[in-house]
Amino acid sequence: MSAQPVDTVAVPPTQQLRGLTAGEASALVAKLSEAQNKLRAGEFQSFELMSGSIAGYDMIKVSPRDAFLQVSFQQVWQIERVHTDNRLWQPFKLAYAPNGLGQLYWDMEVVLGANGQLERVTMVYKPPAPF
Question: What's the pLDDT score for residue 12?
């Protein structure tokens, strides 16, 4: 039994935003893209980076760094600010569907610190919820 869905829907042309403005979303995407560029250039980055997947999916064989470098953050289709009582952490949820909606996708949590610095990126490659 495969958990991979069959139907594919094109990713919406505009980002779906929840709890943040388009400017805030653009700034977050720019921060993540800058981190990618610095990693590619060999610059040290101090944020935590974790990724995973269902054990049977091939993406489980990809290192967290390689998975992070493969994400096109400009094509993230959903960004949500996660409300928290901790003023020192600013968490966001992002969704990136490289093969279109209805297919396996990256469910990500990005945490910024009190000064807006990137603290943690957690990525899980998984099937979409059934609807």
Answer: 67
Structure tokens at 98: 């490289």
Query: CA torsion sign, 41 to 43 to 47 to 49?
Result: positive
How far, in Å, CA of 118 to CA of 45, rounded? 9
Model-wide pTM > 0.85: yes
Average pLDDT, consecutive stretches of 10 residues, N- to C-terminus, the chain (131 residues): 54 84 96 97 97 94 96 95 92 94 94 96 92 49
Contacts of 120 (CB under 8 A, 6+ apart): 47, 48, 49, 50, 109, 110, 111
